[in-house]
Design a protein that fits this description.
Number of strands of chain B: 12
Shape of chain A: elongated
Largest sheet of chain B: 6 strands, antiparallel
Distance between the termini of chain A: 100 Å
Number of helices of chain A: 1
Order of helices and strands of chain B: EEEEEEEEEEEE
Oligomer: heterodimer
Radius of gyration of chain A: 39 Å
Number of domains of chain B: 1
Order of helices and strands of chain A: HEEEEEEEEEE
Structural class of chain B: mainly beta
Strand content of chain A: 35-45%
CATH topology of chain B: Immunoglobulin-like
Largest sheet of chain A: 6 strands, antiparallel
Largest interface: A-B, 26 and 57 residues
Shape of chain B: elongated
Radius of gyration of chain B: 24 Å
Strand content of chain B: over 45%
CATH class of chain B: Mainly Beta
Number of domains of chain A: 2
Number of strands of chain A: 10
């Protein structure tokens, strides 16, 4: 009698174990297959600094504004006559007159810890007779001179460009009259 | 008594279990070489490499196959490639594709796949792709302009799971 009871207990345990195995098996077979792959991607992040000129709302319109190589046309200038849009005449003396426009410089940097930059400028060639050029009151020559020491990145910063013109007659120290004159100013931004 | 040939017989029982499986490989996109589609190293395998060149916020990227842009204070480089998943011995009709990067990137550097920000846990890219049809995935790296110069590297793991 006791043996029959034990047999029944073993059968129940066996059935339970079998059911568990079957469940486990169905669970395994229900797992969805997977596949993996890898891509090893690399990018070398470099640092750099860039300078562009923008037209200032109060100044003359720059040609190719927003780039690092712009043109600026003062038009016809004189001590007393009309001036082009965006050009002003802040000073007229017996010896000279000054015409001015405003332009913006924007310097951006990437990959540097620098938070400010120094702006320098120089004339590409000696100024024509009877002219001198100033940026923010700094008279330019062919050597680099500091215009601004701790300028902030990413902002348009306005600068005055002054042409100081001698009132002397041509041949007597004054500029050529009625002849187009050009000059190139180089700007350099150096990260502090 | 005639001799009777001795015979013997035997049976070899073979058992096997076929398992469902799927495979994944990376392929060059048909537009490879044009802007936005750089060539993969070891294309056609499941262990490829992708060189995005050298880039800077102001200077662009050294590789013409990289799509470069400035977005606010970040610069962005993009390149796309194809993922091909095939199936065998399964009735599954689609698969889910997910991706993760191997390590946390430096501050202000983002690795994205199809615009989705990647991290070191799997991010689902598509939930029901068709087998045997290439899927174009676009890898994008966004770098803010104050990130110090350095090499940026990630191993991106793709996981395809049968639905």
């Amino acid at each position: 009698m006791k043996s029959e009871v034990m047999k029944s207990v073993y059968k129940t345990i066996y059935r339970a174990a079998l059911i568990m195995l079957l469940l486990a098996g169905s669970s395994l077979s229900a797992q969805n297959p997977t596949a993996t792959g890898t891509i090893n991607a690399t990018l070398n992040n470099r640092n750099g600094i860039a300078l562009v000129f923008d037209t200032d709302p109060a100044g003359a319109t720059l040609g190719a504004t927003g780039t690092s190589a712009v043109t600026l046309n003062f038009g016809t200038i004189s001590a007393f006559g009309p001036l082009s849009a965006g050009i002003t005449r802040p000073a007229v003396t017996a010896a000279s007159f000054t015409v001015r426009t405003v332009f913006d410089v924007k310097v951006t940097q990437g990959g540097l810890k620098s938070t400010s930059y120094r702006l320098l400028a120089n004339l590409a060639a000696v100024a024509p007779t009877g002219f001198s050029y100033k940026v923010d009151a700094v008279t330019l020559n062919t050597n680099q001179q500091t215009i601004q020491n701790n300028a902030t990145y990413g902002n348009d910063i306005a600068h005055n460009l002054d042409l100081v013109v001698s009132t002397a007659a041509p041949g007597a120290g004054g500029p050529a009259v009625g002849t187009p004159l050009t000059a190139t100013i180089n700007f350099t931004a150096t990260a502090n | 008594m005639p001799a009777v040939a001795q015979t013997g017989s035997a049976q070899l029982s073979i058992t096997m279990k076929v398992q469902s499986s799927i495979g994944l490989v990376f392929n060059n996109n048909p537009s490879v070489g044009s802007q936005g589609f750089c060539p993969l190293g070891n294309a056609g395998s499941n262990a490829a490499s992708l060189d995005l060149g050298s880039a800077s916020y102001n200077g662009g990227d050294s590789l013409t196959c990289v799509l470069f842009s400035q977005q606010g204070n970040f610069y962005v480089v993009d390149s796309a490639f194809d993922v091909l998943v095939t199936k065998s011995n399964t009735s599954s009709i689609s698969y889910q594709l997910a991706a993760q990067i191997s390590s946390v990137p430096p501050a202000n550097v983002q690795w994205r796949m199809n615009q989705r920000l990647l991290s070191n846990t799997f991010v689902v890219l598509q939930s029901a792709n068709n087998y045997s049809r290439p899927v174009t995935e676009t890898l994008e790296v966004r770098v803010r302009n104050d990130v110090p110069a350095q090499n940026l590297q990630e191993t991106i793991t793709f996981l395809a799971t049968a639905n």
